[in-house]
Amino acid sequence: MGFVLSSFAFLLNKTLLTSLKRRITVYLQVLNFLISLSIDYFFFVKDREMREFQLKLNENQKNRLENALKQIQVLSTKTNSSASASVIVADTIPVNHEDGVLKGHGTSDLDGEVVATLCGVVERVNKLVYVRTLRARYKPEIGDIVVGRVIEIVPKRWRIEINFSQDAVLMLSSMNMPDGIQRRRTAVDELNMRSIFEENDVICAEVRGFQHDGSLHLQARSQKYGKLERGQLLTIPPYLVKRRKQHFHHLEQYGIDLILGCNGFIWVGEHVEVRDAMIEDQENKPDQQINMSDRSLMSIEEQERTFTPLETRQIICRIANAVRVVSSLGFNLTVEQIIDIVEMSISLNLEIHEMLGAEFYVQIAEREVERRSSSGKRK
Amino acid sequence: MEFVSPEGLRLDGRRPMEMRQIRGEVGAVSKADGSAIFEMGNTKVIAAVYGPREVQNRGQQMSDQALVRCEYSMANFSTGDRMRKPKGDRRSIEISLVIRQTMEACIMTHLMPRSQIDIFVQVLQADGGTRSACINAATLALADAGIPMRDLVTSCSAGYLNSTPLLDLNYIEDSAGGPDVTVGILSKLDKVTLLQMDAKLPMDIFENVMQLAVEGCKAIANYIREVLLENTKQLEHRRGI
Known about the structure:
The complex is a heterodimer.
Chain A: H1 2-37, E1 43-44, E2 56-57, H2 59-79, E3 86-87, E4 92-93, E5 102-103, E6 107-110, E7 113-116, E8 120-125, E9 128-133, E10 145-154, E11 157-161, E12 168-175, H3 187-191, H4 193-196, E13 202-210, E14 216-220, E15 226-228, E16 231-235, E17 248-251, E18 256-260, E19 265-270, H5 277-293, H6 300-305, H7 310-329, H8 335-347, H9 358-378
Parallel strand pairs in A: 5-9, 12-14
Antiparallel strand pairs in A: 1-2, 3-8, 4-7, 6-7, 8-9, 10-11, 10-13, 11-12, 13-14, 13-15, 16-19, 17-18, 18-19
Chain B: E1 22-26, E2 34-40, E3 43-54, E4 67-74, H1 90-106, E5 115-125, H2 130-144, E6 153-161, E7 164-167, H3 171-174, E8 180-186, E9 191-197, H4 203-239
Helix pairs in contact in B: 1-2
């Protein structure tokens, strides 16, 4: 059958060739006609530039975006030489063997040469040479603050998805009990685990470390960790979140909590007052007992407390969209920048959905150029 | 049938040693950890990599290395006549296996124990050499996903028709029934990870044909390196300090 098909295709080719000349002239005419109409040609931004969403950019916007990105490239080559140290898989990393070399992550040895096994940037710390990846899954480090989602409840522990190569484990024993008392976890506690976190809850915790069996453990030994409610979870590539002193941010002007998880999970939610365990203990004891007894019957007061006002919800969406735009442009994510973008969108009187539009996208790119060039001068 | 004209041109106007135009692009699927599109002439393939992630089937979990899975499929619209094939036909199972073994040879699976890596490749346009195109696309996608690899695997096919070795066969040449040698190599390590031929060929001719395919692989490797370096640099520039 294959042969028949191929010969058929060949014949087709021959007949096509004869009529090709005529066709070309027709095509040219059509093309001329189109150009004479001067239709607005729209360009789709290539996926390489943004994976999140496709935008319709007109020619002007496209040029502006290209300019901005070009300038960013020029600026980054000027300010830091690290970009020039980009390597890809199987590139040889030049090292001085006399000093002795420690091979770190993303490198391997091939006939005495140090060879990269990842795409990324070469980093050198004293003798250590390693490759820092861009675009990869999250690599946990002890003490990182992560946001994750509960996948499964198994005896004494929760399994949590944190964008790592395996699910993380949060032990019941490495969790502060809601009543704030330090004590041994009993079988009753184990049965009540669902009252703390259920499946699909979004939670925030700290990386405790790897256990001997190679599994990753988390801990939540403070009031600031725990269940996250009334907000949005965004996932961005983890390399865009830089490890800092602060990952919890309370944006007071909006009444919003912003958590930049090191694993690329970003939480934007209504601000929740973190109460000291001891004070809470005394205040809420009777209250909690009522809660436990009849949860289904929520008082009006209770409902009011769990209600998020419209303005707060709108500002949550605004911040979330700011994060989306920045991450799809591939810029590093900082709180200052997000606040800046949110304020810019408000001052421009933009609707929330317009923040994901082409014009705003280009404006953010241009603003980033300004910001980087001014900060470069200050240095 | 005449596959090489007396002037030394093939059916699509190429010289015997000439490859089709290749194009690769990283980042085609938004939700995947790594993805790529690879084109060789009219053959167009999309690849998506998910992982390393938690093993779905606990029984398959390995405590010392990662599990690599691969699924090859052809879109219904990829061939000239629209065929509704069952999903798991023998041909695609075989190619899935080939791709999986080839990629597993270069992924450093021992660095990601208890996890699994899923590679999905789909043929969008088929014009011969889908196997090689799939491997090239998978390599790009794996590199994009930040999965540690020993080297980049690249693949290319070569054939022997009208007593001439031909590089990178298209569909018409492929279905002529002559020998079709698909080679996959690790260009830096200079190792062969894939070699397939389903016909007979004298030793000395086979050497020539295979050498030609290896040359093709190297050319593709160079191109893929360019694409990846460009992409890496761009990401780093964008990210800033």
